[in-house]
Specification:
The complex is a heterodimer of chains A (about 110) and B (about 110). Chain A has about 110 residues and is mostly beta strands. Helices cover about 0% and strands about 50% of the residues of chain A. Chain B is built from no helices and eleven strands. In chain B, the strands form two sheets. In chain B, strands 2, 4, 5, 6, 9, 10 and 11 form a seven-stranded mixed beta sheet that branches.
Chain lengths: ~110, ~110
């Protein structure tokens, strides 16, 4: 979920476990969603995307689920590794403003070896 | 290698000074974007450009200016009118069509002297 202020939601998991990161998006007209991974001091890195005509999409070790009824997006990471530790952002695209993305606040994933 | 290059990585601004952040892409993308990221927060759109010689204000354009004279370049100037410029600035590009991801550079961290 989202929180206000400077404290990111955090998720701590053990190496090898599965991780689920959740995101509530804001605009029911949004038709395209992206998950990004951001490591400290770097730009966001594209992980996976999904269009609104789908409810699930799988990549390598990652799955995105979309529930349009409750405006909820989740990212599942299988067999989480220490290298997965980062801040994860969901972003939505309403199709307005030249492809402008609306970003969530982010969730910090910490993987314990 | 194709990608987005931002420079410098770190930048310091004195009071009353304008500074310009560079963003270059060799992905042949039509659309380019500038975002600002504050600690523990998501990204906010400053300006975007869908085509050469055209750009639009995003959500927080006050105190910033841009130009788009070439397809591969989209420099951002932080003017003295921006009273709180300390942040991490991220440039992105995309094909500009709906349902296309934005790809990011590794950012410029701007601080005040």
């Amino acid at each position: 979920g989202e929180s206000v202020g400077l404290h990111l939601p955090t998720l701590s998991v053990q190496e090898g476990d599965n991780s689920i990161i959740n995101c509530a998006y804001s605009n029911s007209a949004s038709d395209y969603f992206i998950w990004y991974k951001q490591e400290s001091g770097k730009g966001p890195q594209f992980i996976i995307d999904i269009r609104s005509n789908m409810d699930k999409r799988q990549g390598q070790r990652v799955t995105v689920l979309l529930n349009k009824t409750v405006k909820h997006l989740s990212l599942q990471i299988a067999a989480t590794q220490p290298g997965d530790s980062a801040v994860y952002f969901c972003a939505e695209n309403t199709g307005n403003q030249g492809g402008k993305l609306i970003f969530g606040q982010g969730t910090e994933l910490s993987v314990k070896p | 290698d194709g990608g987005i290059t931002q420079s410098p990585k770190y930048l310091f601004r004195k009071e009353g000074q304008n500074v310009t952040l560079s963003c270059e892409q060799n992905l042949n993308h039509d659309a380019m974007y500038w975002y600002r990221q504050d600690p523990g927060q998501g990204l906010r759109l400053i300006y975007y450009s869908q085509i050469v010689n055209d750009f639009q204000k995003g959500d927080i354009a006050e105190g910033y200016s841009v130009s788009r004279e070439k397809k591969e370049s989209f420099p951002l100037t932080v003017t003295s009118a921006q009273k709180n410029p300390t942040a991490f600035y991220l440039c992105a590009s995309s094909l500009g069509q709906l349902s296309q991801p934005q790809h990011f550079g590794d950012g410029t961290r701007l601080s005040i002297l």
